[in-house]
Amino acid sequence: MKAQVFYGPGQLCYEDVPIPVPGAGEALVKIEVALTCGTDVKTLRRGHPVMIPRVPTVFGHEMAGTVVAVGRGVTSVREGDRVVAANSAPCGECPLCRAGRANLCEDLLFVNGAYAEYIALPPRLTAKNLVVVSTALSAARAAFVEPLACARLGIERGRVEPSHTVAVFGHGALGCLLAMVARARRARVVVVGKAGWRLDRVRALGLGEMVDAGAQDPVATLRALTEGRGVDVAVDATGHPEVWEQAIASVAKGGTVVFFGGCAPGTSVRLDTQRAHYDELTLVGAFHHTPQLVRRAVDCLESGAVVPDGLLTHQMSLAEVPGALELMARGEALKVLIRPDAEEERSRS
Ligand SMILES: [Zn+2]
Ligand SMILES: [Zn+2]
Question: What CATH number is attached to the domain comprising 218?
């Protein structure tokens, strides 16, 4: 089969590799659709010690497909099931897993290999985070499960309610998914971004009100939009410390700030201690997802509560993954849909 194999920073090679044979507990999935992700861009540039502990490995981590074979002992899925796989599986046994915080598992197993025609999913992932989806759900939508599960965590950590005004800082794919999940909870949503084609695109998706942080002071604008009170929940999806500070400054008394976007190592933010104390601010991180959130994300997509189609800006073949990631790196794509079978058809003709 064809696969995009990662050998280290800057080294992605399009190669012929054997179709994996599923061992005991494993499921072999024929990949229908993979999606590019901002994490792929970062990982290709500088590696990722947590998500990619060993190289070489097939690259990519957002995918949906069909089970074509299972190894001995697999009972959770069978041949012919349409499935979506998360990109990790928790151990289920460490103190954090037992406390219901599997996203923080001390032994989170990460799985890569979406940019290929097939993937053999390891036993733990097959058992815990490979979910059967209905035949009515397209693979292109199902592949959004992983980032959507992360977005659901962010909105749940913010305890968003229908009466809330929620500001989402950042209008990349995850900012948009956060806005969609908050909208699905019937909250009022304001997306803070910078003018350009992406903001226009997001505006066209009708996710909520828009603030152009390049032209307006976002904190003052958010306060003006809320009669001076500030927003109930602010979510950072940019991973910039200065934006974290804006998010903190924009929440109302009793407000919640969700730190969803990871900042560069070694950075820090200034916190107004008076506000943190007298306004009883809740400042909370949100990282990754849990098996429960993965299933809720599937429900969200199956019920149509979240329809992510508008975030797909391009469609490319497996061979074109490097070009897709360049588009992402230049900020010219939100998400690129990769179809391995488009590749096969081309090479056959
Ligand atoms: Zn991702
Ligand atoms: Zn664990």
Answer: 3.40.50.720
Tell me, yes or no, whether 184 and 237 share the same domain: yes
In a domain, 154, yes or no: no
Task: Give 278 Cα–ligand 1 centroid separation in angstroms.
Answer: 37
User: How remote is the CA of residue 174 from the centroid of ligand 1, in Å?
Assistant: 9
Of 237, 266, 285, the domain-final residue: 285
* pLDDT tops 70 at residue 276: yes
Q: Write the pLDDT tens digit of every residue in 16-56.
A: 999 999 999 999 999 999 999 999 999 999 988 888 888 99
Ligand nearest to the CA of 48: 1
The environment of the single-atom ion ligand 1, i.e. residues with CB closer than 5 A, is 37, 39
Q: Does residue 130 share a domain with residue 74?
A: yes
In Å, what is the CA distance from 243 to each residue of 149, 159, 226, 261, 308?
A: 23, 21, 19, 10, 25
For residue range 212-254, list pLDDT tens digits in order.
999 999 999 999 999 999 999 999 999 999 999 999 999 999 9
Ligand nearest to the CA of 89: 2
Number of domains in the chain: 2
Contacts of 232 (CB under 8 A, 6+ apart): 160, 161, 163, 164, 165, 166, 251, 252, 254, 255, 256
Distance between Cα 62 and ligand 2 center (Å):
22
Name the residue with tokens 């809330």.
164
Q: Are residues 139 and 102 in the same domain?
A: yes
State in Å: Cα 344 to ligand 1 middle.
25
